[in-house]
Amino acid sequence: MANCEELEDVTIVGPVETIGANAFAYCQKLSGIELPETLREIGESAFFHCNNLESITLPASITRIGNGAFYNTGISEIIIERDPDFLGTSDKEVLAQLSRFVGYGKGDAVPRDRTCTVVFNCEHKGDKMEKRFEYNYTTGEWKCFRWRRVFLESYRSSH
C-alpha cells in the first residue's frame, strides 16, 4: 500500500497481527484508519509521511510500535487502549517508548507550535482511567499529566 496516492480511508479486518514496515508510507491522502483488536505490532515507518492522518486509536493488544511509525504525519492525537497493569508503568519508561515513534526527522520542516497528545486509556475498578502526554514538535519536549478518572455514563454502560 505504500505510495498509494489516492488512498484515503482504511479498515483492516480479520485476525491481522502486524502492520509491516513502511506499509502505508507516503500515502499522503490517508486520513482515517481503523485497526483490528488483534493488532500486536506496527512496523518501522509504517505511516511515515501520511500528512493527512490526524488521529489514530491503537487497540489494547498492541505490544510494539516501530521506530518512526508516525514520523512526519499530521497526527495530533494518538489514543492507546491499555490493560490495568499499565497503571504502574513509570512516566520515564513510557516517554522512552513514545519518543521513538512520534516526531519529525532531522532536517524536516516542523510546523510551528505543533503538538501531539498521546492518551492512554484503561479500565480500573469499573472506572475509565486516562493519562495524557503532550509532545511539542518545536521544542522536542514532553509534558506529562497525572492519571485521571473519566466519568462517562456511556462508557460504563457499554462495558
| Largest beta-sheet characterization | 6 strands, mixed
Summed up, the helix count is 2
Mean pLDDT value: 81
What share of the residues lie within helices?
under 10%
Instruction: Report the principal-axis shape.
Output: globular
Quote the beta fraction: 25-35%
**Unreliable residue stretches:** 153-159
Number of strands: 11
Separation of termini?
35 Å
- Backbone structural class: mainly beta
Radius of gyration: 16 Å
Number of separate structural domains: 1
Order of helices and strands: EEEEEEEHEEEEH
Overview of this protein structure:
There is one protein chain. The chain has 159 residues and is mainly beta. It is built from 2 helices and 11 strands, in the order E-E-E-E-E-E-E-H-E-E-E-E-H. The longest helix has 8 residues, at 91-98. Strands 5, 7, 8, 9, 10 and 11 form a 6-stranded mixed β-sheet that branches. Mean pLDDT is 81; it is low at 153-159. It has one domain (9-158). The chain has helices spanning 91-98, 153-158, and strands at residues 9-11, 18-19, 32-34, 41-42, 55-58, 64-65, 77-81, 115-124, 127-136, 141-144, 148-150.
Quick overview of this protein structure:
The protein is mostly beta strands and 159 residues long.
SSE layout:
Blueprint: E1 9-11, E2 18-19, E3 32-34, E4 41-42, E5 55-58, E6 64-65, E7 77-81, H1 91-98, E8 115-124, E9 127-136, E10 141-144, E11 148-150, H2 153-158
Index terms:
159 residues, mainly beta, six-stranded mixed beta sheet, 11 strands, 30% strand, globular
